[in-house]
Amino acid sequence: MRAASTAFIAALLLGSVAGFSSVIAETAPTKDQVALFATVKGEGKTGIARKTKPVDARAAVPGEVIVTVIKGEGVETKSKPAEAGDWVVRNRCPETGNEEILVKAAKFPTRYGETQSKPDAKGYRAFSPKGSDMGYFIVPQEMGEFTFTAPWGEAMVARPGDAIVQVPDDVSDTYRIAAASFACTYEIVTPAKP
């Protein structure tokens, strides 16, 4: 018992990349994010936002696993192994540590379009998100932390202040955007209601 408590405290104090998120994931209640989004939408509390801040992206190496780390929080999620044609997208958001995500080959062109620069030394090129409208709501304080299974099969932890976003034409594509990342990379079209 003492070792577990010590590990938990160390994870909190050190901001352990794997420790903090895994401890929360083990203790937070699990919710179905698609059903939750439908409920919040039915209450008229969702809004519309679009990702607009430029990103950097490179071709993923087949088999590569991208671990998304949010500065100050630790691991947000881990991708499935990349397949040929997938892309690693890096947000330009110092507040979150310029986190990376894996975007599937089929989704990348519709979300990011054509490159706007030549590759840098690491293969990253500049892209501008196409700014597709996404439904969203902000997790209220009274909802507390909860976990859910992201569309790519990994556990995600949502915290008060985070955004839960949904692709309008694919309700199964519903996931968390950390509060700082949402504020840094998304533009509000229609505000969500508290």
Label this structure with key terms.
23% helix, alpha+beta, five-stranded antiparallel beta sheet, disordered N terminus, 13 strands, four-stranded antiparallel beta sheet, 2 domains, globular, 5 helices, 194 residues, single chain
Write the SSE topology.
Blueprint: H1 2-14, H2 19-27, H3 33-42, E1 47-51, E2 55-59, E3 67-70, E4 74-78, E5 87-91, E6 100-103, H4 108-112, E7 125-127, E8 134-138, E9 146-149, E10 155-158, E11 163-167, E12 170-177, H5 179-185, E13 186-190
Antiparallel strand pairs: 1-8, 1-13, 2-5, 2-7, 3-4, 5-6, 8-11, 9-10, 11-12
Protein name: DUF4198 domain-containing protein
Signal peptide: 1-25
Keywords: Signal
Helix tally equals 5
Radius of gyration: 17 Å
The largest β sheet comes out as: 5 strands, antiparallel
List the uncertain runs: 1-24
Mean pLDDT: 88
Label the overall shape.
Answer: globular
- Secondary-structure element order, N to C: HHHEEEEEEHEEEEEEHE
The structure class reads alpha+beta
Number of domains: 2
- Give the strand tally: 13
Strand order of the largest sheet: 12-11-8-1-13
What is the end-to-end distance? 40 Å
Helix content: 10-25%
Question: What's the quick description here?
Answer:
This is DUF4198 domain-containing protein. The chain is α+β, with helices and mostly antiparallel strands.
